[in-house]
Amino acid sequence: MKRVTYSLILFILLLLAACGPSNTQPTATPPAVDQPETDVIPRPTITATAVPADAYPAAAPANTLPEGYPVPELAPAYSPYPGMDASDTQSVMMIAAGVQCEDVRYPTEQDAVAALEAAGIPVYESVTFELPVATVCGGPTSTHYQVIIDADKQAQAEQMGWEFAE
């Protein structure tokens, strides 16, 4: 315990000696210099030079094609619905399989397609996918079905609960 006490006292004394007032008197400020100091190393000056005639030629623009070169075909546009190619005369519709905490309306994709076809709506393609949903009674299930139908049958499908997939 004595060692700790002596160490603490020694530390406090050293702190007071280091942070105490100084006895040095301030000196007079040096006189201001009228001229700035000259650089020890001279700085280079950059001057523009003309390009010599025998210099390497500039590269041609990248988007020009050689004469007679066939123009490549454009890549197909990205489809937000992979595997489902809907034209202007077709609509992409989707519906949840059911409502949480209740009986499922369409247990399988085939049941959803069969319900549309029974109503006289031809289905060209169908896909099952999962969407993140909140787990709450009365909310849609995470399983959804997506179909491609004729655009003129869209209103009839909407009456059955299907939604237009934008």
Keywords:
166 residues, alpha+beta, Alpha-Beta Plaits, 4-stranded antiparallel β-sheet, 3 helices, 15% strand
Structural write-up:
This protein is α+β, with helices and mostly antiparallel strands and 166 residues long. The protein has a domain at 90-164: 2-Layer Sandwich (Alpha-Beta Plaits). 20% of the residues lie in helices and 15% in strands. The chain contains 3 helices and 4 strands; from the N terminus they run αβαββαβ. It has helices at residues 2-19, 109-118, 154-159; strands at 90-96, 123-130, 143-150, 163-164. A 4-stranded antiparallel sheet has the order 2-3-1-4. The radius of gyration is 41 Å and the shape is flat. 11% of the residues are buried. The model has no long low-confidence stretch (mean pLDDT 81).
Helix-strand string? HEHEEHE
Please outline the major beta sheet. 4 strands, antiparallel
CATH topology of the domain at 90-164: Alpha-Beta Plaits
CATH class of the domain at 90-164: Alpha Beta
Q: Assess the beta-strand content as a share of residues.
A: 15-25%
Tally of strands: 4
> How many distinct helices?
3
* Structural class estimated from helices and strands: alpha+beta
Overall mean confidence score, pLDDT:
81
Q: Which stretches are low in confidence, meaning pLDDT under 50 for 5 or more residues running?
A: none
Radius of gyration: 41 Å
How far apart the termini lie comes to: 80 Å
